[in-house]
């Protein structure tokens, strides 16, 4: 029986005027708003699926994305989506609903929508699908759910989705800028039929959240009629020159106690920016390692994002010194070799071997932080401070996931070291084939920086000429060269 309420609900107040219901909502909103737990769960399952798929789509496209800035953005956006997968999963478990069905598509139309974006063949199509269709659809759904939710009855869901909406709006804002920079009317005309297919997919599933009236249009796959195939070959835009060059051993210079602090600053920034190859390689591990718990993928994507941040830290360091990093060979050899010569388990073991090698105080991340301190650069100190903190977490991720799979830390270290040797066997071959001369780029970069800063170059520093021909980054002697 409906109770008629003739009182003025808006006048209701708490003790001495305190807001009722801890100020979550007004009395009228509390009386009028709300949806059933079943309806809420159905929406959550759709968001969960979309976040999971989008996280992996962003990740898969990092390696072969040539544009550096988009490669970096995909790292962040993959991480943000991955984190919300977990929070929604936990919320569904709390709502009288075991997390059954979270590993299958809630709607075949939604899955076709995401498949089409995953298979987009060009940068322009990919960012239109991601940033003009998928992310805005998520934003619309989250806004709609938050509008319908009674924040008193369903505050836990409200909190989860409110946080998700905040970060999706950040992604949407970036996406608008990316589209404005990279997509013109010619691209839009060429992609118009495909974009309409994406719209029809959403119309058929009642929009991404499933709350709109559904249509029943015939949907014929376009790009996704050919199954998606991950491309393991790293791509870089035209700013990256001499990508095979391994002519300057940055680690050997940094570890040389006779070298002064200032030039080591350049080498630190070079090492950080060169970490662009880690997300290019980690994406291949994530894509090619199947049937793991979602926490595995979440942790690996978090590490991938951290390594992406490290590359941008190096970029910022070079900017601070007025160094044009595009004049320095930022190589791709590590990601290229590991992606084409090693299995996923070998790649992960190599990554773990390197991470563990960064833990000793005298040669690892603490040492790099001490080098940064000695340069008296506050920026370098902060960069190395957080780089060090991140690597401690990354070593733990390795202990959690790859060590148990191989059978122990010592075994994993040995396995990783042996696998890493594979990555160096083409050093001489690249030179023979004319792909690089392994030019020593250091003297020019160092002398130009000294000139710009009004510093007289140190002859010993200027004469540095140690390559990776005979020693890996961990200074272990290279085999097969």
Brief digest:
The chain is mostly helical and 481 residues long.
Topology:
Blueprint: H1 27-32, H2 37-60, H3 68-93, H4 108-118, H5 123-148, H6 155-182, H7 185-204, H8 250-255, H9 261-274, H10 277-288, H11 294-320, H12 333-341, H13 344-357, H14 365-374, H15 378-406, H16 409-421, H17 427-432, H18 442-453, H19 459-462
Helix pairs in contact: 2-3, 2-4, 2-5, 3-6, 3-11, 4-5, 4-7, 5-6, 5-7, 9-11, 9-14, 10-11, 10-12, 10-13, 11-15, 13-15, 13-16, 14-15, 15-16
Question: Which structural class do the helices and strands define?
Answer: mainly alpha
CATH topology of the largest domain: Heme Oxygenase, Chain A
Task: Characterize the overall form.
Answer: globular
Number of domains: 2
Detail the poorly predicted runs: none
The DSSP helix count reads 19
CATH class of the largest domain: Mainly Alpha
What is the succession of H and E elements?
HHHHHHHHHHHHHHHHHHH
**Mean of the pLDDT scores?**
93
State the separation between the terminal residues, measured CA to CA: 86 Å
The percent range for helix content is 55-70%
Percent strand equals: under 5%
What is the rounded Rg?
26 Å
In total, how many beta strands? 0
Corresponding CATH architecture of the largest domain: Up-down Bundle
Largest sheet: none
Protein name: DUF455 family protein
Organism: Maribacter ulvicola
